[in-house]
Amino acid sequence: MVQVRPLRLRYTPAALAELEQVLAYLSELSPQGAQRVRTRIRAVLELLSDFPRNGARVGQLRRIRATPYPYLIFYEIAGNEIVVVAVRHGARDPSKMPNPS
To answer: How far apart are CA 96 and CA 101, in angstroms?
Structure first.
């Protein structure tokens, strides 16, 4: 049996800033809610490290939703890494999303 190693996770500086902004905004409304969103995003990213092609293709990137929350994670697979390029609320203007299709 071949053992597949999970991919490493890396955020672009812009994606990390977006995630921090989302969590800061949510913390003002509900610290517990912000923690739940953070935990869910982390769980989705852990899943992607084992199953990187779970996200839907959107142009050059892939996108996955942090269900049940409305946040979209845009990422690319680059060698042995998953590179998170954006974390956005799903209700944002689609033309402002990375690689809109």
So the answer is: 11
Domain map of the chain by residue range? 8-92
Alpha helix (H) ranges present in the chain? 13-29, 31-50
Q: Indicate the class that CATH gives domain 8-92.
A: alpha beta
Residues 82, 72: Cα–Cα separation, whole Å: 15
Instruction: Answer for the pair 52, 74: CB distance below 8 angstroms, yes or no.
Output: no
Express each pLDDT in 30-46 by its tens digit.
999 999 999 999 999 99
Stretch 9-25: mean pLDDT, rounded?
94
pTM over 0.90, yes/no: no
Q: Which residue has 């905004």 as its token pair?
A: 25
